[in-house]
Design goal:
mainly alpha; 161 residues; globular; Arc Repressor Mutant, subunit A; 2 domains
């Protein structure tokens, strides 16, 4: 039996409530945007080892303007978490790499985040946590399939005044 309109409304309300809570929590993380850059570099290393990562790749993946990524990269380089080197194939471009310190920081912050989520579900049964994870994974897969089949219209940019 397909879900009713009320079922879908309840789902949307729950998802937006959770998303809003996650957004608020992320705003309380010092330098959350820089953390996102570190996480994307970690993902790129894991899924595309040896492939150079450019600042424009990170901006695209994070759906932000390149200038925002540049500021974070400069701060991350100063803190020793990344290196920026000239791209051998294109001298005008830079390649971003994680350092050992950057990997250690991602690991530390990942543990902090996982500990926080573990606290949220501490009084849940393991089966409930597993069911929620399975259903959210299924939801994300369905969402991606719909987006591929029926892409949302591109948002029109507002003219600058």
């Amino acid at each position: 039996m397909p879900p009713t309109t009320r079922d879908v409304e309840d789902l949307v309300t729950a998802l937006f409530t959770v998303a809003d809570g996650l957004r608020r929590a992320r705003r309380r993380i010092p330098d959350a945007a820089a953390l996102s850059v570190l996480q994307m570099l970690t993902w790129a290393e894991r899924h595309h080892p040896g492939r150079p990562v450019h600042p424009s790749d990170l901006a695209t993946a994070l759906d932000v303007h390149r200038s925002a990524v540049t500021r974070h990269l400069q701060a991350l380089e100063r803190s020793g978490h990344i290196t920026l080197t000239a791209d051998q194939a294109d001298g005008r471009s830079w390649v971003v790499s994680l350092t050992g310190s950057g990997r250690a920081e991602v690991d530390r912050l990942t543990r902090v985040g996982l500990d926080r989520f573990a606290t949220v579900v501490a009084d849940w049964d393991a089966a409930d946590v597993q069911t929620l994870a399975r259903l959210l994974t299924r939801f994300a897969r369905s969402q991606a399939e719909v987006a591929q089949r029926d892409p949302a219209p591109v948002r029109a940019r507002r003219p600058r005044s």
